[in-house]
Model the fold of this input.
Amino acid sequence: MTAPASDTITMFGAEWCHDCRRTKKQLDELGIEYTYIDLVAEPAAADVAKEISGRTNIPVVVYPDATHHVEPSNADVEAKLRELSLI
Done:
């Protein structure tokens, strides 16, 4: 994993992370397509997520417009998806 795709949403997370599970559930329920990078399965991807966000917190959600959220609330994600006309 070198960088997130520019034409989709990429989410860096881990199953042990409550916020990651919540954000995945939200995206799934909204029918949003995204690429999920499991940091347990791909530990080197944690460096990519940290480079993007400047932090070690997860999830890191990268949007097609190259913006990102770190540990976003459901309202943050929904607002961004609306801004991008994805919902």
Notes: The chain has a mean pLDDT of 94. Helices lie at 18-30, 45-53, 74-83. The chain has three helices and four strands.
